[in-house]
Amino acid sequence: MEPGLALRALERAVAAGDSRVAVLDADWPRFAGHLTDDPRARPLARVLDGIPAVRRAARAAEPPSPYGPEEFGRRLRARPPAEREAELLRVVRSHAAVVLGHGTAEAIDPRRGFVEMGFESLTATRLRNRLAAATGIQVSAAAVFAHPTPDTLAAHLLGLYDTPRARQRPRLRPRSRD
Asked: In CATH, what class is 69-167?
């Protein structure tokens, strides 16, 4: 960070009367992704989620989905019915891991609550968008809270998969189907 910029930011913070201030040049997506691991850091994560530049940087840093709705549908139909929920759970866990900044899907416990993992409105929306892009299944961001664990969300998505309206082309503002 350029020293003059850092000093101006510090001066503004002191003039505003802030008693706890940090001025830093950070890799925000990486930094913010780690905040969800520690419940004590969630207040700071909420603040960072409110900064548009941080949200944009976090979205840009997310890897794209490995396949889209057509490939997902083909893979799901190729599985025996008893294995389809496990495939959806794998998809939910992998996208939740990306949203939370974890390296692998194994970091996501299928029975641990999304809120407990650090999901809030912004991260729930990001997960919903990633799942819609990967599966074509349209749900609201509230589905992450209505179906509060990866395994219950996967079961819900499987129930929606056979509903034609749920598999519409992904839109920026998917319809609620939960």
From this structure: mainly alpha
